[in-house]
Amino acid sequence: MASSALLLLQLLLLTSLVSASPHWGVTLNSAYKGRNSDGSVKISLRARGTFDSCGNFLDWTCSGNCGSVTSKVKDIVDTSTDSSSNHYQWCETELIEKKSLLNDKPFNLGASSYYWVTTRNSVMNGSFESYVDFGRRSDTEEPNTLPDVAIVPFLRVPENCPRTYKPAAFDIDGDKVRCRYGNLPGYECDNCSLPSGFQLDQDSCTLHYQHTNHDSRVFGFEMVVEDFPHSTIDLSYSDGSSVRKIPLLSRRKRDIASILSGSWTTAVSPVIPTATTAATTTVSSSTQNVASGPLSKQPLQFSFLVDPDAPSCQEGLYLPILVAPTPAHGERIEAEVSKEMEIRVKAHADHSTIFDIIFSGPSAITKHRDVNNDFVLRWTPVEDDLGDHFPICFVVESVNGSRIYQSEMRCVLVEVRKAQIEATVTCTETTMKVEVEKDSFFGLQEEHLRLSDPSNTICSLDRLSNDTHIVAIIPLNGCGTEIEEDDDYLIFKNEITTVDDDPNELITRKHLVEARFYCQYPKRGNVTLSFSAHRKNVTVWEKGFGKFTYQFEFYQDDQFGPIYDPNFYPLEFDVGDRIYMQIDASTSINNTEMFVESCRAAPYDNPNFHPTYSIIENGCKVDQTVQTHPTSNNRQFRFSMDAFKFIGLHDQVYISCTVMMCEAGNPDTRCSQGCMNSTLSHSSSRRKREAMIQSGMHFVSQGPLRLKREADLRGGSAFNLNLVFVAGCLLVAVGMVCGVLIYKNKASRVKSQPLFAYVN
């Protein structure tokens, strides 16, 4: 009778969640957040549920040490695409609940009787169960942590393409994590059988799809994640009780008998119905409890669609293949409080079109797609995330007609730590100003710090730094600044890093830290002032060559007489018009000559933007219309070319060139070698710079240029107010730029994965 009453009580406690929207999947993560001043325990619960409406959120009931709710936050994680060929429309939402518990004793969370989307394996009534234990571990002397669990809520695969899936199941304590199929009807599952055509390797948490017929309905998967210690440990609680947990493979009578020979304190075992693949064993005496069950238990539920056959199962043909810079599965990424981190994901498919990314992770993540068709996941941790770990899983989707294909699924783990350096980044219409406290570099000498490209005098960190701060004002088109673009923003990035004393060394052993920073500009906004587009001269200082200035101008005819008035920029040309250009280097050093190594056309005057249109490469003419013209001295370079259709792909473009100075008449310099392949060019440049007979490469640009027909189509407008904010051209409204600094300590992470992502 007592057991029946207990079961009835549990059924009442684990009451139903009745959703107005069909359910597609569930994950639930729990984190210990410390103690309040009165000794009560703070915890955070993150429940993700997937429905066919973004207005629904997962809810649960609690039994045991439930405490009180201190806050609730609801948000959207990710939604399905609007593709008309995808009749499955879903939305993953997240409910973050903060609780205050009277003590650190275990408790149970559960829900039942919400209903699944129509499934082919007869899963109808949804339910899940979670067992949470934050007892202090005897091996670490820290509260127990639960595995961090995540999976993409909607997976799909062609019926003829075997595939392997590894959900995120990271355990910071290093415990043995197992994934099994639910086997307790009404608590862990509805149809408690693994669907046909799949195999589950419990020990490695790996799901193998082998083969089954396609169907318009999904499989509903109802899995459970559990963790076990590798050796026998005690979990102790603030009320003086404790429980002993034994490893998964130590469930023999003789092992339990040997455990009982030790001294024990009385412990409280969880009073919930439990079933696992290896039955839980609790051995009690008057002085102790021995529990061989898991340290914790969490739900892992998701939907899986089997599509018709694909023409080929080889990744990269129809099924997208993930390529660099996509992080590897299981990679660990460090993020900092209040600093946006970035995960870049790139995929390729020859016979289908990449069109979307699906992910599961913290609800504050945003996804973007840049002009190179890379996907970017961005997230800014808040103070409350400090010390926590967040799994993020993703797949990339492609389309071919009405067919949709998914890449493999990868999951990474993001660790949130405190900000490593004190810095301020200020963005203007032409520059980034960064100020970093010198103490943040942990004793590194200032002379070992530099920007990505310090060759220009304005790129020297010595110029503006003081006793307490490293200060640099970096042009958006210089000092090695890189540019990225997506549908909404232009992002200019640079970094302060460490180098050896000898700048000509090919390797460095002092490259221990990187302070990466960037400015982000909206591509649409209010133009507050007029602008002057004409680019100014570039002044460079380099050891052995002193100070010299490059001037890049457009001319009106082949006589190279008057230049175009800077007030007339952007210059307008018809396709086929001849464009005349001259680059001139002035210096007080005699016996020098200039060499133009490359020239390209791009939407921005930045050498790190891609794609570009090549005009000259490695000193060789690439565009067939290029002609060179005689000059009065060897520090000038005159050339011309036909206006090209590339301009029509953008509102405006710049002509950008890399140039260098050499000792005149020396046959061993790069200048004397002229047109040659890139490999020989680079090796020669390294050797000759050391001999002080030639400089490094420097970047000059001029523009922008526009096609007249593009201007005419806009009714003669001088420029499009919805243009991307070209570096140095437009002044954006106050408050529409932002700067961020991201720190990377390589020395402390030699044995771990590199920090993959940077951003905002």
Helix content: under 10%
CATH topology of the largest domain: Immunoglobulin-like
Give the beta-strand count.
49
Looking at the overall shape, the CATH architecture of the largest domain is Sandwich
> How far is the N terminus from the C terminus?
61 Å
Q: Could you describe the largest sheet, including whether it forms a barrel?
A: 8 strands, mixed
General form: elongated
Residue runs with pLDDT of under 50 for 5 or more positions? 1-19, 82-86, 250-288, 503-512, 525-532, 679-691, 710-760
Q: Overall mean pLDDT score?
A: 78
- Summed up, the helix count is 5
Radius of gyration: 32 Å
Structural class: mainly beta
CATH superfamily of the largest domain: Immunoglobulins
How many domains would you count in the coordinates? 4
CATH class of the largest domain: Mainly Beta
> What proportion of the residues form beta strands (DSSP E)?
35-45%
Explain what this protein looks like in three dimensions.
The chain is mainly beta and 760 residues long. The protein has four domains: 14-229 and 297-309, Sandwich (Immunoglobulin-like), CATH 2.60.40.10; 313-419, Immunoglobulins (Immunoglobulin-like); 423-527 and 738-749, Immunoglobulin-like; 538-713, Immunoglobulin-like (Sandwich), CATH 2.60.40.4100. 6% of the residues lie in helices and 42% in strands. It contains five helices and 49 strands. Strands 1, 2, 4, 5, 10, 13, 16 and 21 form an eight-stranded mixed sheet that branches. A six-stranded mixed sheet has the order 40-48-47-42-43-44. A hairpin with a 5-residue loop joins strand 1 (23-35) and strand 2. The chain starts with a helix and ends in a 15-residue tail after the last strand. The model is unreliable at 1-19, 82-86, 250-288, 503-512, 525-532, 679-691 and 710-760 (pLDDT under 50).
